[in-house]
Structure formats: structure tokens, C-alpha cells
Amino acid sequence: MAKIGMFGAGYVGLVTGACFADLGHEVVIRDILPERIEMLRRGEVPIYEPGLDAVLERNHDRLRFTLDVAEAVDGAEFLYVAVGTPPTESGDADLTAVWAVVDELPLDIPGRPVVVMKSTVPVGTGSHVRARLDARGLSNVGYVSNPEFLAEGTAVTDFTTPDRIVIGAFDAEDGDRVVELHEGIDGEVLCTDVHSAELVKLAANAFLSTRISFINEIANVCELVGADVVDVARGVGLDHRLGPHFLRAGIGFGGSCFPKDVSALKQLAGNEGYPFMLLHAVWEVNELQKRRVVQKLQKHLGSLRGRRIALLGLAFKPNTDDMREAPSRVIAYRLIAEGAEVAAWDPVARPTDLAGVDICDSVLETVRGVDAAVIVTEWPELASFASSEIRDAMANPLVVDGRNLLDPEKTQAAGFTYEGIGRPRHASPVQPPEPVA
Ligand SMILES: NC(=O)c1ccc[n+]([C@@H]2O[C@H](COP(=O)([O-])OP(=O)(O)OC[C@H]3O[C@@H](n4cnc5c(N)ncnc54)[C@H](O)[C@@H]3O)[C@@H](O)[C@H]2O)c1
What we know:
With 437 residues, the protein is α/β, with parallel strands linked by helices. 40% of the residues lie in helices and 14% in strands. The protein contains 16 helices and 14 strands. The protein has helices spanning 11-22, 34-41, 52-58, 69-73, 96-104, 125-135, 155-160, 172-181, 194-225, 229-237, 258-271, 277-301, 327-337, 363-367, 388-393, 408-413, and strands spanning 3-7, 26-30, 63-66, 78-81, 114-117, 142-145, 164-169, 188-192, 308-312, 341-345, 357-359, 372-375, 398-401, 417-419. Strands 3-2-1-4-5-6-7-8 form an 8-stranded mixed sheet, with helices on both faces. Helix 13 links the parallel strand 9 and strand 10 (341-345). The protein binds nicotinamide-adenine-dinucleotide. Nicotinamide-adenine-dinucleotide binds at residues 7-13, 30-33, 36, 82-85, 97, 100-101, 118-120, 148, 150-152, 256-257.
């Protein structure tokens, strides 16, 4: 069994570290946030990720948490980098945290530990890190790119049953050691060079984002020509060459990965002089898709000034508390800019930075007296939204189903005005708005 130093105790570092411990390895997880490390030492989990608490709990003998670099490096055969790489003002990836880890490594590390890059980084980063390690006299330290494909909400099972494990190495022996470390995990292994491994990650996220923007554009066409995108997507996805995944129309993608990785790949290509036109379109479609919610509300309500709107679901997707780049942020601030009051609910996310948004504790409290409700995140709790209790609580029973979660006919039969995404055949006729008092 190996000793692993894990840099970063976020969604990737914590899940990966805990799951490696579950395979029997000894893992020391290092972060720079004292409150995060203290929570973990107390047995508390600082993020919401289903199943993670149980993995941490049953492996606490093999897991340590520290603020100290030396403790994470001491005796480690693998030094995993799982720090954040958010976008900079220019849309490129911000590698400040990655460089901090590389530069924090002590100069006297014995043996041949391997730095393993889990963070999503631009192509070429591995070569730059290799050069920096060499320049610091750490030529004995290996480097392997091992991009992460887990999805928040299913991160633990994604680790144990991955579609693939991608390993890009400068030195084949270093790559083989990282392959061996994954023994016990059933997933296809792709061994390649560092540049290709780096690009697999960016290309995969860009392609998933492209599918989402594609089906959202199809939904927008459906609204013009009277087709139902749910049936269209099903018919398209039944083609074995295409498959059904990521063909669900809605109000656009968000989260800590897709937006930044689309941007990072677009900028990476641009920096090399290549305009990646398709990704420009993917990005623009996604920005407009979030704003279409406001137009749908205006179609039914006219001016939104003085209207109260409920946003149901705030996290960028269900089963996570992650609010990074969540579409709810854009929708909330567009509504406030239009003069609306915004009430919001999420079963897990409790954002403290949504100024002007009234965060409520239950769906019922959120919809009380509102002129419309918007389903922003398809939390399972919202599947039973179309009840008489909810309808009676709303001042006006208009629901904009931003994730096509509800059954349009049943929702209308329950007395709601229904507006989905790309489902014109089910849309309720627009009622003339009541004058605002
Ligand atoms: N979240 C995902 O679903 C996901 C999936 C695949 C890949 N990724 C990639 O993995 C990387 C990490 O993402 P995340 O969502 O876990 O980020 P995160 O923000 O949740 O966690 C990053 C952690 O790194 C810590 N950190 C910063 N500097 C450090 C340092 N010098 N030493 C140790 N720790 C330090 C931060 O305090 C934070 O706790 C990113 O590059 C991301 O693009 C994320």
C-alpha cells in the first residue's frame, strides 16, 4: 500500500483522498484553510457530497488532515495536486494555487515521489511544472497528469467505477506506478503523453457542454415550430451513435467545471492563434439560455416590477451544495434588475452572497404570495411541486419549469399555468396580467 500526500481538501481532493484510503492507502490531506482542516479533524465534512461522510468515517485510521506541507510530503510516494484552477479575468485558468503547491515542495525530498496533477490545467502545464521542478533541483520528483472526471453529486461512485482513468506521463515508469495505485478500481486505463492527457479533460468537458448548448438551441427551435424537445431529445438519443446523455434541455449549464473549462479551452486555442468558433457559440447559447427565463416570465406577467418570483433550487445541479457559476445567480440578478422581488429555496445550498434574495426554509414558504415560481434546479423534492397546497399558496399559479422536471399535463390539470423549455405544445395560453397594485 502506498503513502499519498493530497494537496487540496475540496470536492476532488477530499473525495479522491478518502477513496484512496478506502483502497487501503495511507493518505495525508493538506489544505490552507484552517477551519476546513479543523472540521475534518473533528469528523465533520465541509462539503455536501453523498456517501463521502461514510467513506471518511470508515477510513479515519488511514487519513490525516494537516495545514503542514512537510507532513503531507513526508514519506509520500505520490503527491496529488487537487487545488482549484478558477478562471482569471481573461478567461484563462488561474494556476496560482498549482504553482503555490509546486513551490512549497521542500528541496530535500528523497527517493522518487511522483507529482500527480488532478487539477484541470491548460495543455502545457505539465511541461512547465516539469521545468520548474528541475529548476528547483527536484529532478528526482516525477510528474504525471491524471485528470479527474468525477461529477459532484456522484463523486464517490465515479471514483470507484470510472469510465476511464487517463494517465499522461513523461516517464513510463512513473505512469505505471500511478496505474498500479488504482488497483482495485474497475475502469479502462488510457496511458498517453502529458499534453494529450491534459487535453482529454478539457475536450471532454467542452464536448459535454456542446451537447447541452446544442439541445438548448433545439429547444428554442421547438418553441418556434411547435415541437416538444423532450420527445425530440429522446428520439435523437436512441441513435446508438449519439446516446441519450447530456441531451436534456434546460436553462443552461453552470458549476465549477463546464463554464471555466469551456473558457479555458477557448482561450488556450486563441492564445495559439486559433479561434475555436464552436466554443464561442456554446458559451453564448448558454448565457442567453439563462436569460430566457426572464423573457418567459415577462410573456405571462408583463413588467416584472414589483412582482415576487420564487426560485426553486439554487445549486448548479441537484445533489450538491456547489453554487459556483450556478444559473440561479444570473436569473436572480436579472430579476432584481427588472424590479422583481426574489424569494429562493434550496434543500442544501445556503449561499450568503446572494444580496437582495430572500432565502427561505421550505418550498411552501418560498412560493407564498408569489406571482410565479421558477424551477431552477431539478431537485427530486420538486417533482411533487404541482399540489393544491402549493397552488393555493401562490398569488398567481404560474410555473416556469426550467428543467422540464414536471409533467406538463398533470401540472396544468392541478390548476397551474405551465411553461417549460422547448415544450410549446404544453404551454398554457398567456393570461392578461393583473395590474400591479
Ligand atoms: N468539482 C468538480 O466536480 C471537479 C471535477 C473534475 C475536476 N475538477 C478540477 O479539480 C480541481 C479542484 O476542484 P475542486 O472543485 O475540488 O476545488 P475546490 O475549490 O473545492 O477545492 C480546492 C481546495 O484546494 C485548497 N488549496 C488552495 N491552495 C492550496 C495549497 N497551496 N495547498 C493545499 N490546498 C490548497 C483550497 O483551500 C480548497 O479547499 C480544479 O482544477 C477543478 O477544475 C473539479
